[in-house]
Amino acid sequence: MTGKPTLHPTPWQDEISELIAGYKRGYALAQPFYTSEAVFQRDVDRVFLKEWHLVGHVSELPEPGDYLLFELLGESVIVVRNREGAFHALANVCRHRGSRVCLEPRGNVSRFSCPYHAWVYNLDGSLFSARLMGADTDKNSLGLKRFAIEVFHGLIYVCFSDRPEDFSTARTMLEPMVAPFGLVRTRIAARTSYPVAANWKLLVENYNECYHCTAAHPEFSRSHVIHLPERLYEPLNAKVGARAAGTGAPADRLDATGPNKPKGAIDIYYRRYALFDGYETGSEDGKPLAPLLGDLSGWDSAASDIYVGILNPMLVYSDHAVIYRFIPVDKDNSIQEIIWLVHEDAVEGRDYDKDRLTWLWDVTTESDKLIIEKNQEGVNSRFYEPGPFSPMESHTRWFVESYLRTIA
Ligand code: FES
Ligand code: FE
Protein backbone atom coordinates (compact mmCIF):
# COMPACT_ATOMS: atom_id res chain seq x y z
CA MET A 1 0.00 0.00 0.00
CA THR A 2 1.23 3.48 -0.75
CA GLY A 3 0.11 6.98 0.15
CA LYS A 4 -1.44 8.32 3.31
CA PRO A 5 -4.45 6.61 4.81
CA THR A 6 -7.68 8.54 4.27
CA LEU A 7 -9.02 10.10 7.43
CA HIS A 8 -12.75 9.67 7.91
CA PRO A 9 -14.55 11.77 10.48
CA THR A 10 -15.72 9.67 13.39
CA PRO A 11 -19.50 9.30 13.73
CA TRP A 12 -19.64 11.78 16.59
CA GLN A 13 -17.78 14.40 14.56
CA ASP A 14 -20.51 14.07 11.95
CA GLU A 15 -23.14 14.26 14.64
CA ILE A 16 -21.73 17.47 16.16
CA SER A 17 -21.18 19.15 12.78
CA GLU A 18 -24.79 18.41 11.89
CA LEU A 19 -25.99 19.76 15.19
CA ILE A 20 -24.07 23.00 14.72
CA ALA A 21 -25.24 23.34 11.12
CA GLY A 22 -28.83 22.80 12.25
CA TYR A 23 -28.76 25.57 14.88
CA LYS A 24 -31.54 28.10 14.40
CA ARG A 25 -30.20 31.60 15.15
CA GLY A 26 -31.93 33.42 17.97
CA TYR A 27 -33.12 30.18 19.54
CA ALA A 28 -32.02 28.02 22.44
CA LEU A 29 -29.74 25.07 21.70
CA ALA A 30 -31.04 21.65 20.72
CA GLN A 31 -31.26 18.86 23.28
CA PRO A 32 -28.03 16.97 22.43
CA PHE A 33 -25.95 20.02 23.35
CA TYR A 34 -27.03 19.36 26.93
CA THR A 35 -27.27 15.57 26.94
CA SER A 36 -24.75 14.06 24.53
CA GLU A 37 -21.53 12.56 25.83
CA ALA A 38 -19.84 13.34 22.50
CA VAL A 39 -20.77 17.03 22.80
CA PHE A 40 -19.49 17.09 26.37
CA GLN A 41 -16.17 15.62 25.27
CA ARG A 42 -16.00 18.32 22.59
CA ASP A 43 -16.72 20.92 25.27
CA VAL A 44 -13.85 19.55 27.34
CA ASP A 45 -11.44 19.70 24.40
CA ARG A 46 -12.49 23.04 22.94
CA VAL A 47 -13.67 24.96 25.97
CA PHE A 48 -12.27 23.68 29.25
CA LEU A 49 -8.81 22.78 27.98
CA LYS A 50 -8.60 26.13 26.14
CA GLU A 51 -10.20 28.72 28.41
CA TRP A 52 -8.56 30.51 31.33
CA HIS A 53 -9.75 29.32 34.74
CA LEU A 54 -9.75 31.43 37.86
CA VAL A 55 -8.11 29.19 40.45
CA GLY A 56 -7.67 31.41 43.47
CA HIS A 57 -6.36 34.61 44.99
CA VAL A 58 -2.78 35.49 45.88
CA SER A 59 -3.79 35.99 49.52
CA GLU A 60 -4.25 32.20 49.73
CA LEU A 61 -0.54 31.71 48.98
CA PRO A 62 1.29 34.43 50.94
CA GLU A 63 4.55 32.58 51.67
CA PRO A 64 7.20 30.99 49.44
CA GLY A 65 6.33 27.31 49.03
CA ASP A 66 2.60 27.84 49.68
CA TYR A 67 0.57 25.84 47.19
CA LEU A 68 -2.99 24.82 46.38
CA LEU A 69 -4.36 22.19 44.02
CA PHE A 70 -6.65 23.25 41.19
CA GLU A 71 -8.67 20.20 40.14
CA LEU A 72 -10.89 19.97 37.09
CA LEU A 73 -12.27 17.05 35.10
CA GLY A 74 -9.81 14.57 36.59
CA GLU A 75 -6.80 16.85 36.10
CA SER A 76 -4.82 18.20 39.01
CA VAL A 77 -2.63 21.30 38.87
CA ILE A 78 -0.25 22.47 41.59
CA VAL A 79 -0.38 26.27 41.89
CA VAL A 80 2.64 27.35 43.92
CA ARG A 81 4.46 30.52 44.94
CA ASN A 82 8.24 30.25 44.49
CA ARG A 83 10.96 31.84 46.60
CA GLU A 84 11.00 34.98 44.44
CA GLY A 85 7.24 35.48 44.84
CA ALA A 86 6.28 34.35 41.32
CA PHE A 87 3.65 31.70 40.70
CA HIS A 88 3.85 28.44 38.77
CA ALA A 89 1.13 26.05 37.60
CA LEU A 90 2.51 22.50 37.42
CA ALA A 91 0.86 19.29 36.26
CA ASN A 92 0.44 17.10 39.31
CA VAL A 93 1.75 14.11 37.36
CA CYS A 94 5.16 12.64 38.17
CA ARG A 95 7.57 12.42 35.25
CA HIS A 96 8.75 9.00 36.42
CA ARG A 97 5.70 6.75 36.21
CA GLY A 98 2.92 9.24 36.57
CA SER A 99 1.87 9.22 40.19
CA ARG A 100 0.23 12.27 41.67
CA VAL A 101 3.11 14.14 43.30
CA CYS A 102 1.14 16.31 45.65
CA LEU A 103 -1.66 14.69 47.64
CA GLU A 104 -2.82 17.36 50.08
CA PRO A 105 -5.09 20.07 48.61
CA ARG A 106 -3.13 22.89 50.28
CA GLY A 107 0.11 23.28 52.14
CA ASN A 108 3.62 24.64 52.28
CA VAL A 109 6.67 22.78 51.02
CA SER A 110 10.30 23.52 50.25
CA ARG A 111 10.15 20.94 47.42
CA PHE A 112 7.62 18.43 46.13
CA SER A 113 8.49 14.79 46.78
CA CYS A 114 6.62 12.09 44.86
CA PRO A 115 5.11 9.56 47.29
CA TYR A 116 5.80 6.60 44.96
CA HIS A 117 9.59 6.43 44.39
CA ALA A 118 10.56 9.78 45.88
CA TRP A 119 11.63 11.81 42.90
CA VAL A 120 11.92 15.38 44.18
CA TYR A 121 10.90 18.55 42.29
CA ASN A 122 11.75 22.21 42.90
CA LEU A 123 9.02 24.82 43.30
CA ASP A 124 9.35 25.73 39.61
CA GLY A 125 8.73 22.08 38.68
CA SER A 126 12.30 21.28 37.64
CA LEU A 127 13.57 17.88 38.76
CA PHE A 128 15.83 18.23 41.80
CA SER A 129 16.70 14.57 42.39
CA ALA A 130 15.78 11.13 41.12
CA ARG A 131 17.15 8.59 43.55
CA LEU A 132 19.09 5.56 42.31
CA MET A 133 18.61 6.50 38.67
CA GLY A 134 21.57 6.09 36.33
CA ALA A 135 24.02 8.90 35.69
CA ASP A 136 22.69 9.18 32.14
CA THR A 137 19.25 10.30 33.34
CA ASP A 138 18.53 13.64 31.69
CA LYS A 139 17.14 15.58 34.63
CA ASN A 140 16.66 18.71 32.55
CA SER A 141 13.98 17.07 30.45
CA LEU A 142 12.08 15.53 33.35
CA GLY A 143 10.55 18.51 35.13
CA LEU A 144 6.85 18.64 35.92
CA LYS A 145 4.88 19.95 32.95
CA ARG A 146 3.99 23.62 33.25
CA PHE A 147 0.79 25.40 32.36
CA ALA A 148 0.22 29.04 31.51
CA ILE A 149 -0.51 31.15 34.57
CA GLU A 150 -1.44 34.82 34.94
CA VAL A 151 -1.98 36.95 38.01
CA PHE A 152 -4.36 39.84 37.43
CA HIS A 153 -5.04 42.16 40.38
CA GLY A 154 -4.43 39.31 42.80
CA LEU A 155 -6.61 36.84 40.90
CA ILE A 156 -4.77 33.76 39.68
CA TYR A 157 -5.75 32.28 36.31
CA VAL A 158 -4.50 29.03 34.78
CA CYS A 159 -4.92 27.65 31.26
CA PHE A 160 -4.19 24.07 30.13
CA SER A 161 -3.52 25.06 26.53
CA ASP A 162 0.01 25.57 25.23
CA ARG A 163 -1.46 28.35 23.05
CA PRO A 164 -3.70 30.19 25.51
CA GLU A 165 -5.79 33.19 24.58
CA ASP A 166 -3.78 36.37 24.98
CA PHE A 167 -4.13 37.95 28.42
CA SER A 168 -2.37 41.22 27.57
CA THR A 169 -5.53 42.91 26.25
CA ALA A 170 -7.22 42.18 29.57
CA ARG A 171 -4.32 43.87 31.32
CA THR A 172 -4.33 46.99 29.20
CA MET A 173 -8.06 47.42 28.56
CA LEU A 174 -9.43 46.37 31.95
CA GLU A 175 -6.65 47.91 34.03
CA PRO A 176 -8.21 51.39 34.53
CA MET A 177 -11.58 49.86 35.41
CA VAL A 178 -10.36 47.24 37.84
CA ALA A 179 -7.44 49.02 39.54
CA PRO A 180 -9.52 51.35 41.82
CA PHE A 181 -11.15 48.33 43.49
CA GLY A 182 -7.77 47.15 44.80
CA LEU A 183 -8.62 43.48 44.34
CA VAL A 184 -5.01 42.56 45.03
CA ARG A 185 -5.54 43.91 48.54
CA THR A 186 -8.50 41.66 49.28
CA ARG A 187 -8.87 38.22 50.78
CA ILE A 188 -11.43 35.45 50.58
CA ALA A 189 -14.11 35.91 53.23
CA ALA A 190 -16.26 32.98 52.11
CA ARG A 191 -16.30 30.31 49.47
CA THR A 192 -19.25 27.99 48.78
CA SER A 193 -19.85 25.21 46.25
CA TYR A 194 -23.38 24.52 45.01
CA PRO A 195 -23.74 21.18 43.19
CA VAL A 196 -26.16 21.60 40.28
CA ALA A 197 -27.62 18.57 38.46
CA ALA A 198 -27.36 20.18 35.03
CA ASN A 199 -25.04 20.58 32.08
CA TRP A 200 -22.56 23.44 32.58
CA LYS A 201 -24.02 25.47 29.70
CA LEU A 202 -27.33 25.83 31.50
CA LEU A 203 -25.48 27.49 34.39
CA VAL A 204 -23.68 29.92 32.08
CA GLU A 205 -26.84 30.67 30.10
CA ASN A 206 -28.70 31.38 33.33
CA TYR A 207 -25.98 33.68 34.66
CA ASN A 208 -25.92 35.70 31.44
CA GLU A 209 -29.56 36.79 31.46
CA CYS A 210 -31.82 38.50 33.96
CA TYR A 211 -35.09 37.78 32.14
CA HIS A 212 -35.68 35.23 34.91
CA CYS A 213 -34.73 37.53 37.79
CA THR A 214 -38.08 39.16 38.47
CA ALA A 215 -39.75 35.81 39.00
CA ALA A 216 -36.90 33.82 40.48
CA HIS A 217 -34.94 36.38 42.50
CA PRO A 218 -37.14 38.81 44.46
CA GLU A 219 -34.21 39.46 46.83
CA PHE A 220 -31.93 40.48 43.94
CA SER A 221 -34.63 42.32 41.98
CA ARG A 222 -35.50 44.76 44.70
CA SER A 223 -31.93 46.09 44.78
CA HIS A 224 -30.47 45.61 41.26
CA VAL A 225 -31.98 47.47 38.28
CA ILE A 226 -30.52 44.98 35.80
CA HIS A 227 -33.60 42.74 35.97
CA LEU A 228 -35.64 45.44 34.18
CA PRO A 229 -35.97 45.72 30.41
CA GLU A 230 -33.25 48.01 29.02
CA ARG A 231 -35.62 50.93 28.31
CA LEU A 232 -36.49 51.01 32.03
CA TYR A 233 -33.08 50.52 33.57
CA GLU A 234 -31.13 52.79 31.23
CA PRO A 235 -32.59 56.01 32.77
CA LEU A 236 -31.65 54.68 36.20
CA ASN A 237 -28.16 53.83 34.97
CA ALA A 238 -27.72 57.32 33.57
CA LYS A 239 -27.09 58.58 37.10
CA VAL A 240 -24.38 56.05 37.87
CA GLY A 241 -21.57 57.90 36.07
CA ALA A 242 -21.60 60.95 38.31
CA ARG A 243 -22.23 58.91 41.44
CA ALA A 244 -19.38 56.54 40.67
CA ALA A 245 -16.96 59.33 39.73
CA GLY A 246 -17.58 60.88 43.14
CA THR A 247 -16.27 57.77 44.84
CA GLY A 248 -13.50 56.82 42.42
CA ALA A 249 -15.35 53.86 40.92
CA PRO A 250 -15.06 53.61 37.12
CA ALA A 251 -18.34 53.79 35.21
CA ASP A 252 -16.97 53.34 31.68
CA ARG A 253 -18.20 50.51 29.55
CA LEU A 254 -16.13 47.94 27.76
CA ASP A 255 -17.35 44.99 25.73
CA ALA A 256 -14.54 42.96 24.20
CA THR A 257 -16.37 39.65 24.14
CA GLY A 258 -17.23 37.36 21.27
CA PRO A 259 -16.99 39.14 17.92
CA ASN A 260 -15.87 42.40 19.60
CA LYS A 261 -12.63 41.02 20.98
CA PRO A 262 -9.22 41.16 19.34
CA LYS A 263 -8.43 37.86 17.60
CA GLY A 264 -6.86 35.35 19.93
CA ALA A 265 -7.54 37.44 23.04
CA ILE A 266 -9.42 36.50 26.17
CA ASP A 267 -13.04 37.73 26.50
CA ILE A 268 -13.31 40.80 28.71
CA TYR A 269 -16.26 42.90 29.79
CA TYR A 270 -16.82 45.78 32.20
CA ARG A 271 -19.91 47.69 33.13
CA ARG A 272 -21.01 49.49 36.28
CA TYR A 273 -24.77 49.61 36.76
CA ALA A 274 -27.15 51.09 39.28
CA LEU A 275 -28.66 49.70 42.41
CA PHE A 276 -32.02 51.10 43.44
CA ASP A 277 -32.11 54.09 45.78
CA GLY A 278 -31.62 53.01 49.35
CA TYR A 279 -29.20 50.21 48.40
CA GLU A 280 -25.56 51.13 48.86
CA THR A 281 -24.40 47.59 48.16
CA GLY A 282 -25.79 44.10 47.52
CA SER A 283 -27.15 43.64 51.04
CA GLU A 284 -30.53 42.60 52.41
CA ASP A 285 -31.20 45.97 54.05
CA GLY A 286 -29.28 48.16 51.58
CA LYS A 287 -26.70 49.13 54.19
CA PRO A 288 -22.94 48.59 53.72
CA LEU A 289 -21.58 45.12 54.36
CA ALA A 290 -17.83 45.64 54.79
CA PRO A 291 -15.10 48.32 54.62
CA LEU A 292 -14.70 50.03 51.23
CA LEU A 293 -12.54 48.29 48.67
CA GLY A 294 -9.28 49.69 47.33
CA ASP A 295 -9.14 53.41 46.69
CA LEU A 296 -12.88 54.07 46.86
CA SER A 297 -13.97 57.00 49.00
CA GLY A 298 -17.63 56.09 49.36
CA TRP A 299 -20.56 53.91 48.33
CA ASP A 300 -21.95 54.82 44.89
CA SER A 301 -24.97 52.52 45.00
CA ALA A 302 -23.77 50.53 42.00
CA ALA A 303 -22.19 47.25 41.01
CA SER A 304 -19.71 46.34 38.29
CA ASP A 305 -20.13 43.34 36.04
CA ILE A 306 -16.68 42.14 35.05
CA TYR A 307 -15.64 39.21 32.87
CA VAL A 308 -12.12 37.89 32.50
CA GLY A 309 -12.86 34.93 30.23
CA ILE A 310 -16.31 33.42 29.81
CA LEU A 311 -16.00 31.11 32.80
CA ASN A 312 -15.02 33.71 35.40
CA PRO A 313 -17.58 36.50 35.82
CA MET A 314 -17.55 38.69 38.89
CA LEU A 315 -19.61 41.39 40.46
CA VAL A 316 -17.82 44.16 42.31
CA TYR A 317 -19.74 46.32 44.78
CA SER A 318 -18.12 49.19 46.67
CA ASP A 319 -17.34 47.02 49.67
CA HIS A 320 -17.00 43.44 48.41
CA ALA A 321 -16.65 41.34 45.28
CA VAL A 322 -18.45 38.16 44.31
CA ILE A 323 -16.77 35.75 41.89
CA TYR A 324 -18.58 33.02 40.01
CA ARG A 325 -16.84 29.85 38.85
CA PHE A 326 -18.62 27.41 36.52
CA ILE A 327 -17.14 23.96 37.10
CA PRO A 328 -18.20 21.00 34.94
CA VAL A 329 -18.26 17.58 36.60
CA ASP A 330 -19.74 15.54 33.75
CA LYS A 331 -22.33 16.16 31.07
CA ASP A 332 -25.17 16.07 33.62
CA ASN A 333 -23.57 17.70 36.64
CA SER A 334 -21.76 20.92 37.47
CA ILE A 335 -20.64 22.90 40.46
CA GLN A 336 -21.42 26.54 40.93
CA GLU A 337 -18.71 27.96 43.13
CA ILE A 338 -18.94 31.41 44.64
CA ILE A 339 -16.10 33.32 46.25
CA TRP A 340 -16.66 36.47 48.33
CA LEU A 341 -13.76 38.93 48.61
CA VAL A 342 -13.43 41.70 51.20
CA HIS A 343 -10.69 44.22 51.96
CA GLU A 344 -7.62 42.43 53.31
CA ASP A 345 -7.80 44.36 56.59
CA ALA A 346 -11.47 43.57 57.23
CA VAL A 347 -11.93 41.39 60.30
CA GLU A 348 -14.91 39.05 60.53
CA GLY A 349 -17.20 39.94 63.42
CA ARG A 350 -15.72 43.42 63.74
CA ASP A 351 -15.90 44.80 60.18
CA TYR A 352 -18.35 42.43 58.56
CA ASP A 353 -20.77 39.65 59.33
CA LYS A 354 -20.30 36.61 57.11
CA ASP A 355 -24.00 35.72 56.98
CA ARG A 356 -24.96 39.26 55.95
CA LEU A 357 -22.12 39.37 53.41
CA THR A 358 -23.11 36.13 51.71
CA TRP A 359 -26.89 36.40 52.08
CA LEU A 360 -27.81 37.82 48.67
CA TRP A 361 -25.75 35.56 46.44
CA ASP A 362 -26.49 32.53 48.58
CA VAL A 363 -30.28 32.88 48.28
CA THR A 364 -29.92 33.84 44.63
CA THR A 365 -27.73 30.84 43.83
CA GLU A 366 -30.00 28.43 45.71
CA SER A 367 -32.89 29.72 43.57
CA ASP A 368 -30.81 29.43 40.41
CA LYS A 369 -29.82 25.89 41.31
CA LEU A 370 -33.49 24.94 41.42
CA ILE A 371 -34.50 26.62 38.17
CA ILE A 372 -31.44 25.34 36.32
CA GLU A 373 -32.14 21.76 37.45
CA LYS A 374 -35.77 22.10 36.34
CA ASN A 375 -34.45 23.55 33.06
CA GLN A 376 -32.31 20.43 32.59
CA GLU A 377 -35.24 18.11 33.36
CA GLY A 378 -37.35 19.85 30.72
CA VAL A 379 -34.53 19.85 28.19
CA ASN A 380 -34.20 16.08 28.72
CA SER A 381 -37.84 15.59 27.74
CA ARG A 382 -38.76 13.99 24.44
CA PHE A 383 -41.11 16.95 24.05
CA TYR A 384 -38.39 19.63 24.35
CA GLU A 385 -38.07 21.94 21.39
CA PRO A 386 -35.81 25.04 21.52
CA GLY A 387 -37.73 28.32 21.77
CA PRO A 388 -36.75 31.91 20.85
CA PHE A 389 -34.63 34.16 23.06
CA SER A 390 -36.17 37.37 24.38
CA PRO A 391 -34.39 40.74 23.95
CA MET A 392 -33.46 40.48 27.64
CA GLU A 393 -31.47 37.33 26.85
CA SER A 394 -29.04 39.00 24.46
CA HIS A 395 -25.98 37.96 26.49
CA THR A 396 -27.14 34.38 26.63
CA ARG A 397 -27.67 34.49 22.90
CA TRP A 398 -24.16 35.89 22.52
CA PHE A 399 -22.80 33.06 24.69
CA VAL A 400 -24.59 30.40 22.65
CA GLU A 401 -23.33 31.77 19.33
CA SER A 402 -19.83 32.23 20.67
CA TYR A 403 -19.89 28.68 22.09
CA LEU A 404 -20.95 27.21 18.74
CA ARG A 405 -18.07 28.98 17.00
CA THR A 406 -15.69 27.64 19.65
CA ILE A 407 -16.68 24.01 19.26
CA ALA A 408 -17.16 24.13 15.46
FE1 FES B 1 6.87 9.42 41.01
FE2 FES B 1 7.94 7.07 40.60
S1 FES B 1 6.00 7.75 40.00
S2 FES B 1 8.80 8.75 41.65
FE1 FE C 1 -30.32 33.78 38.38
From TrEMBL:
- What is the name listed in the Swiss-Prot or TrEMBL entry for this protein? Rieske 2Fe-2S family protein
Boundaries of every Rieske domain copy:
52-158
Q: Which SUPFAM superfamilies match?
A: Bet v1-like, ISP domain
> Which Gene3D superfamilies has this protein been placed in?
Naphthalene 1,2-dioxygenase Alpha Subunit, Chain A, domain 1 (3.90.380.10), Rieske [2Fe-2S] iron-sulphur domain (2.102.10.10)
Q: Which GO terms describe its molecular function?
A: 2 iron, 2 sulfur cluster binding; iron ion binding; oxidoreductase activity
Q: Which UniProt keywords apply?
A: 2Fe-2S, Iron, Iron-sulfur, Metal-binding, NAD, Oxidoreductase
Give the matching InterPro entries: ARHD_Rieske_2Fe_2S, Rieske_2Fe-2S, Rieske_2Fe-2S_sf, Ring_hydroxy_dOase_asu_C_dom, Rng_hydr_dOase-A
Q: Cofactors per UniProt?
A: Fe cation
Indicate whether Nucleotide-binding appears among the record's keywords.
no
Superkingdom, taxonomy of origin: Bacteria
Pfam families on file: Rieske (PF00355), Ring_hydroxyl_A (PF00848)
